[in-house]
Each structure stands twice: as structure tokens, then as C-alpha cells.
Sequence to fold (153 residues):
Amino acid sequence: MRHFAFIALTISMFMNLCACNDDKRPITFSELPHSSQTFVETYFSDKQVSAIFRESHGENEYEVLFSDGAQIEFTSKGDWDEVKDRDEDGVPTGFLPTAMANYVATNFPGVNIIEVNKERSKFEVELNNGVDLVFDKNGNFLRQDDKRKKLTD
Fold:
């Protein structure tokens, strides 16, 4: 029984040690990479920043939270990685590839992008009507995934 307790205690200590390596701490706007500051000032100037965090997972990553619930995640280099804005206007499209913004405007009139994730070779986009779209790195449409249809199947 003592052996089991010792193993459990060791595992618990190890997990706490690992958790400490995920360092997430608040920072000021001026501590963001310059390109991140410019992005926020250019595309989210009408919003109030409520918190900014630097997360260390080997490399620094940044998260900017706004008072209305919008959020942006930036890479260690200051490039946007994920943008969420679920208000009625959705995510601003000025920073997205033109082909992507045009595709959404043409094929989904009156529908807004509420989340966009930039991955190595593609963009994943969520619309406020429940449709998910995937685009290549140049903004060309690849496919559609309608979550509403999955729920009814």
C-alpha cells in the first residue's frame, strides 16, 4: 500500500511540474510583438482590449482578449494564428486573402465569418450560420463542412 501511495505521489508531483512549464502570464500591449500591435490597431481599433497573455510552450505565443469576447492568438513572431469574433459583424476580413473574402461574400451573402484559423497550408473558417469552410493558403476554396447537416443525419 505504501508503494502505491509513493507512486501516486510521484506521478502527482510530475504532473504539477509539467503544468508549471505551461507559463501563461499577463503582459501589456507594448510587450506584444510590433506586428501584433499593428494588427490589433488596424483591424480591431473599435474594440477594447481586456487582457493580453504571453504563453510559453517552448516558444512564446500571445493571446489578446477583448471586452466583447473577441480574441486573437499570435505566433511567437507576432503573426496572427487564430481570430474569433462572434459579434454581429463577425471577424473583419481586411487581413484575409481577397479570394477567401470574395468567396464568402458571393456564396454566403449576409453571413459573417466568426472564426478563422491559419494553419501551415490552409485556412479553416467558421461562419455564423454553422457552416465550416476550408481554403488553401492562397485563399482558394477547397471544401465545405456543414455542421447542421451532421446533427440531423
